[in-house]
Amino acid sequence: MIIIRVSWLAVVMWLLNGVIFVLKAWKRMGNSSAAEQDIKSALTSIKIEPSDCPVSASIKKMLQSSSPLSSDRCIYRAPVDIRKVNEEAYTPRVVSIGPLHHGRKGFEAMEEQKLFYLRTFLGRTSSSLENYVQVVKSLEDRTRKCYAETIETSAKFTQMILLDGCFIIELFIRNCFGGPYEEGDLLFSPPYMLSNVCIDMMLLENQLPFFVLEGLHNLLSSDKQNRIPTLINLTKMFFEPTIGMTKLLDENGIPPLKHFVDLFWFCQLPTSRPKDYVVTSNCIPCMTQLHQAGVEFERADGDRLFDIDFNNGTLKIPRIVVTDCTEILFRNIIAYEQCNGTNRYVLSYMSFINDLIDTPKDVDMLIHNNILTNGIGSSIEIFILFKAICKETEAGNIPYLHGLRRDLNKYCYTHTWNVTFLMKYCKSTLQRWKETLKRDYFDTPCKGVSVIAASVLLVLTFIQTVYTVLPA
After folding, report:
1. Which residues, other chains included, contact 113 with Cβ-Cβ below 8 Å and sequence gap of 6+?
2. 386 in Cβ contact with 350 (< 8 Å)
3. What single DSSP character describes residue 147?
4. What is 254-272 written as a DSSP string?
């Protein structure tokens, strides 16, 4: 009986403890809800003024001063990945055009040359300097939007654009009409810096918007006394010899241009819209492998990069002229394609040529077939040049050359299989003959000596027979 009483007492105590625990928990929940309500009311009553938070005030100021990305952006710095492969290909040597390299050391002589050309330029027109300043100022906002970097509005920016624009147009006019040139002209008289200036004007980071040049040119040509060619023709006459193109587009076929690099890019585009192909392999055999498969090579008649044709086992490629500025030209066009989001046609072409050239021997084959003209040195240098241009780039899915790649791969697969089969057959036949000779005639030294002696006797008998038949 005592044990039973103790058990019932333990049960009662356990129940009482449970009730007390539940009551305490309920009380804590009530206090927590009240505390939460107090915190919420306190938070809603607090008002943070901009002056109370320096960080938010600073960010708001930055947002107000910044402008949304402009669709007019077309002048960029070369991407870091491709720039580090060859920085000199993107950096001006003697003259800065535009704001990205303005004020660099070493360009002081050309800044004086710009003032010299501005004086001559103003002497060609009845319009005042103020008129040309007004043209540049009216285009200033649009000009700043063309650069990928933020350019502040200032009088120095207007002055720089005016000097650079007038310098370019005066340079084009002098190049068009020829001398006589003044003794102090650094471009057309010693030290003859024209070629270096031309190369600097081909750089993506060293550009002026084309509409700025058009505005200055239109004001200059509005004078009846000035009979100068159109800006497009002046540009073509200036760049054609250096770039190595034998033929540029007709003026009527050129759309509104953004800058000179945009013109170079447009002049390389295919004349027809690319067909859609299902890409099975992006790689193609090199020149040597194509030759072993039976492919013949010829120089195409067209001047465009994409006038490439493969038909009946003959690959026709337009002339490739490699000069000192070839790498610079194509590197900057490719950088423009990478930055501007345009179709990467030129990069696709360079990737195709890069696949064809796997060794300096492939370069020699291009030269032998009059496809490539070497103007820089050895075949090894050209091999290194083409291999370096496509580094740190990605051609993307450009379908224009995919059909050509597919046809080359199909042709090489079929013909290489036939050649491989024939070589294997010949090799197996020779192997069988060799094994038979060794097994039946050279299994012992005596048989080997007998075979050799018999062979010598047979040869001597043949020679004696020939001498007997021939008249003395």
Report:
1. 95, 167, 185, 186, 187
2. yes
3. B
4. ----SSHHHHHHHHTS-SS
Q: Decide if pLDDT at 207 tops 50.
A: yes
Rounded Cα distance between 347 and 396, Å, is: 9
Contact (CB, 8 A) for 411 and 295: yes
Nearest-angstrom CA–CA distance, 16 and 24: 13
Q: Taking the CA atoms of the chain, what radius of gyration do you get in angstroms?
A: 40
Q: Which residues are paired to 296 by β-bridges?
A: 314
What does pTM read for this prediction?
0.74
Helix (H, G, I), strand (E, B) or coil at 226: coil
- What tokens appear for 324 in the block? 């000192």
The Cα–Cα gap between 312 and 464 comes to: 52
Q: What is the pLDDT of residues 416-462, one digit of tens each?
A: 655 454 455 455 555 656 666 665 677 677 777 777 888 888 888 88
Question: What is the pLDDT, as a whole number, of residue 16?
Answer: 62
Of 189, 169, 190, 165, which Cα lies nearest the Cα of 179? 189
* Token code pair at residue 459: 């040869």
Per-position DSSP letters for 20-84, written without gaps between them: HHHHHHHHHHHHHHHHHHHHHHHHHH----GGG-HHHHHHHHHHHH--PPPTT--B-PPPHHHHT
Query: Which residues have C-beta within 8 Å of that of residue 325, sequence separation ≥ 6?
Result: 198, 199, 202, 242, 243
User: What's the token pair of residue 21?
Assistant: 């625990």
pLDDT score of 14: 61
Q: Are 259 and 202 in contact (CB under 8 A)?
A: no
The residue-averaged pLDDT of 73-79 equals 94
Contacts of 206 (CB under 8 A, 6+ apart): 92, 95, 96, 97, 98, 100, 101, 200
Contact 215, 136 (CB under 8 A): yes
Using CA atoms, how far residue 312 sits from 122, 271, 295, 395, in Å, is 60, 23, 9, 28
Among 125-129, 182-186, 245-249, 362-366, name the one with the lowest average pLDDT: 245-249
